[in-house]
Specification:
The structure is a single chain. This protein has one domain: Metallo-beta-lactamase, Chain A (4-Layer Sandwich), CATH 3.60.15. Helices cover 19% and strands 29% of the residues. The chain has 6 helices and 20 strands. It has helices spanning 42-49, 67-70, 73-79, 188-199, 223-233, 248-258; strands at residues 2-7, 23-27, 32-35, 59-61, 84-88, 95-99, 102-105, 118-121, 125-126, 131-134, 150-154, 157-160, 168-173, 176-180, 205-208, 213-214, 219-220, 239-242, 262-264, 270-272. Helix 5 crosses helix 6. The radius of gyration is 17 Å and the shape is globular. The protein starts with a strand and ends with a strand.
Amino acid sequence: MKIVSLIDNVANNKNLTGEHGLSLYIETKNHKLLFDLGASSLFLENAIALGINLQAVDTVILSHGHYDHGGGLKTFLQINDKALIYIKKEAFGDYFSKRESGMEYIGLDKDLSKNQRIILLDKDMILDEELSIFSSVEIIEQRFSLNKKLKIKIEEKYIEDDFQHEQNLIIKADNMKVLIAGCAHNGITNIIRKFIALEGTAPDYVVSGFHLSNPSSEKSEDEQVIYELGNMLSKRNTKYYTCHCTGITPYKKLKEILNNHINYFATGDVLNL
């Protein structure tokens, strides 16, 4: 299995450009797939620079209904005419972020929701022997405080997002189980707990943002919260590759606890498993 970061906030490769967003290209024995599509068409530019043919992609999974994960959807539909795109049915809702200037729309392009290749999911789904998608995560450890700025607009009222539009991917290949998540708005420990309930064991690898920072406000979760998360993650023999909304400063704090069990996964990085 090979996982390539096409989009992350950080780019360590001088030939590539990062942006606030996430897009992962994944190759397995049976699939060439994309998990998320970044905020713009930049994922395609980086793929071309890396020699990756996105016309060959057969499956796309969008983690949730925010622009920084699905902003490249229109571009992808234009350059690929075969892939099925799996999105949670709630993902085309009215999602906003509370900024200093007011409420800012951060959702997807609703005009794309009627595309015949988009499959709107209302439950967990096993795609085949390699891929399965799950949501409906029970919230035991509470969501991080930065989530409180994220809203959904219902009948002209802005209420706190419950992230029913978030979904996660399980890949089973090469005698490994891998969890792929987007921002883990529902809490990475809660998501791992659901993974264990489904699979009977913890994932061997996790690739995910942890939503510990907000680039627009340049704020991160409290140090104590980050260290508590690190201690919880350290209890499992799992290797973590984090990215995007984790933020560099929180990542460095997690690294103090998890050492070689966590690495940052920047634009252009390649993970061969």
